[in-house]
Amino acid sequence: MPGTTPFQFAQEALDTAHAEDPKHEMTEEGEQPAELLYAQRMSDWLARVAPEASEPLQLAVRAQHLRRWEVPRDDYPRDRPGYLAWRRDLGRRQAALAETIVREAGYDEAAVEHVGALIRKENLKRDADTQALEDAACLVFMAHYFSDFAREHDDDKLVRIVAKTWRKMSPRGHELASALTLPEREREIVARALSA
Hints:
mainly alpha; 196 residues; 9 helices
C-alpha cells in the first residue's frame, strides 16, 4: 500500500485479525471485538510503561492475544498443568502468527525474531522489552479485567493471584499499578497481597 510503513502495515494486519474475535464487549464508544479492545489497551499501557518503545516491542504488545479465541481454555485439562500447557501453547502459536505478519510487513529477520521472543516472554526480568510487555499485560489486567475476575473468585485465591502478578512487574509497573483507582474490595485484596 503506497505510503504505508512496515509498522502501519503490521499493526493494521494485527488489528484486522483481532477484529474477527466473535466475542464483543460494550465500551463507552459502543460494542467492540474483545481482543481488538484488549490490543488497544495493551498499546495504551505500553505508552505509559515505556514511552520510547521500539517498533518490535509495540507490535509484540499489540499481538499478545492474537487469535486467542481459536484455542479455548476448555481444550485443556482444568488443572494447573493444563492451564500452563494452554498458556505455553498459546504463546508459541501467537508468536508464530505475529512473526508471519511482521515478516510480511517487510521487517528484517532480527526484528521478526525479537517480536516472537517477546510474545513468548523469553528472558523475563532480564530483558527490558520483555519486562515492559509483562508490565503492560499486568496493568491491563488490573485496570480493566480485575473487577470482573474478582466476582468469580474468593478473596484468598485473588490475593495469591495479585501477589504473583506483582512479582512479575518492574518498579515502573508497581508505580503505575499503585496509582490505579480500584473498587474497595479489589483495593483490600491488593493490600493483603502486598503485605503477605
